[in-house]
Design brief:
mainly alpha; globular
Length: 419
């Protein structure tokens, strides 16, 4: 019987729209923060951008557990809608912040309110995984399909967000453009109510934790430590190269629109290679991550050495080709090591957040010496990812007869609190 299937497809589309809108709203201004602070407040110190990003990410990390505690007493959809409506009110004021300090404080408040949406991510991903599992022949490929879908949404949203940010920066009244993000918050609140009411019962519960195979506890801890280090280095590499890239590109003669296009070119490369993710996963297995990270590192090194826009285009595309496969491989590595819930998952995800917190401060310090230096730092971090992920021995297999974990991680750490 097929009646349930047509109902599921629109629901999946709504889930994708929610994730994409959230990413666009939270990251649209990220590539242009130095220019935004210069135009609005006459602040051109790179340290101001680094401090702003650091404050927003610290706030995002701190408030999420508080929203989790609130969700134990208040229905999930009420928490999320309350957070998004509060964020809309803050965003209206954000565009009219009188100075840099007020803008940073209001942005932090907006991040705190928007963090409520992350409470709904497990329900979103569980529904997407349930559909993927019904279309794939085994848990491994179901997990791969679900991860690939999330990565595709991430990169499509990255392209859209960059274009939106460039459009906002081109407005004659920049403040109105900043405040207009309140409309997105309201739209998200409407979609959230629709989605959470339509999800099957039980989708909001915690995902399964990994089942550890019998073996030495020391080896298990080493595997978790390796996964955490890979995650930290990977997240750090992507985050450190972002804040000042458009300034660097404009310095090479790209212009403001060209800088925006160059910023999202890695996402174009990633989208081009993602259809081959399953084939590459089956062919290379555990070697996929070190190889993809190596290609991505080569792309960032090429960008660092670029003397003009054509060379920069080549480096961005090469980095994107490696990035698409590396993101899938990293999330699959996290899934095998930690599952999607439980103390191991929480510990590794918390450690990974350290990469996002440290990146803007180091990036700001680096550009005070050379605008291209964050690209070299990103390449070095990706070389560390490649070295750490080299296969040394087969991954542990869950004990026979025990259930496998839920087949997809929730890549919350990938969301950057940049607005």
């Amino acid at each position: 019987m097929t009646p349930a299937r047509p109902a599921g497809l629109p629901l999946r589309a709504v889930l994708i729209a929610v994730i994409a809108l959230y990413l666009v709203a939270e990251t649209a201004l990220a590539p242009f923060l130095p220019q935004l602070f210069d135009r609005l407040y006459g602040v051109d110190d790179p340290g101001a951008t680094g401090l702003y990003l650091w404050v927003c990410r610290i706030v995002g990390l701190v408030v999420l557990p508080l929203w989790g505690l609130a969700a134990r007493r208040v229905p999930l959809h009420r928490c999320v809608v309350a957070g998004l409506c509060s964020a809309a009110a803050v965003d209206v004021m954000l565009g009219f912040a009188p100075n840099y300090a007020a803008f940073t404080a209001l942005s932090a408040a907006s991040v705190a309110c928007n963090a409520a949406l992350l409470l709904a991510y497990p329900a979103f991903v569980a529904e997407h995984t349930r559909r993927a599992a019904g279309e794939q022949g085994d848990a491994e490929h179901a997990g791969l399909a679900a991860v690939r879908s999330i990565v595709v949404v991430f990169h499509v949203a990255a392209v859209a967000a960059t274009l939106v940010g460039a459009g906002v920066l081109a407005l004659p009244d920049l403040r109105l453009g900043v405040s207009a993000f309140a409309v997105v918050d309201v739209l998200l609140a409407v979609l959230i109510v629709r989605v959470l009411r339509r999800l099957p019962a039980g989708h909001g519960g915690p995902a399964a934790a990994p089942v550890r195979a019998p073996g030495p506890r020391r080896r298990w801890w080493l595997l978790l430590a390796q996964a955490a280090l890979i995650g930290v280095a990977f997240d750090f590499a992507l985050a450190v190269a972002r804040p000042f890239f458009t300034e660097f590109a404009e310095g090479l003669g790209s212009g403001s629109l060209g800088g925006a296009v160059l910023f999202f070119l890695p996402s174009v490369g990633a989208l081009a290679v993602l259809p081959a993710a399953r084939r590459c996963h089956d062919r290379f297995g555990h070697r996929l991550l070190p190889l993809a990270a190596l290609v991505c590192a080569a792309g960032f090194a090429w960008q660092y050495a670029a003397g003009g826009v054509p060379a920069l285009v080549g480096g961005r595309l090469l980095a994107g080709l490696g990035l698409g496969l590396a993101q899938v491989a990293v999330e699959m590595r996290m899934f095998r090591s930690t599952g999607t819930a439980g103390p191991a998952f929480t510990a590794v995800e918390t450690v990974r957040s350290a990469g996002l917190i440290a990146a803007p401060l180091l990036s700001a310090a680096a550009v005070s010496h050379d605008l291209a230096l964050p690209l070299a730092i990103a390449a070095a971090a990706l070389l560390c990812v490649s070295a750490l992920s080299l296969p040394k021995s087969p991954a542990p297999v869950p004990a026979e007869g025990l259930p496998h974990p839920s087949p997809v991680p929730v890549p919350v750490h990938a969301e950057e609190y940049d607005r």
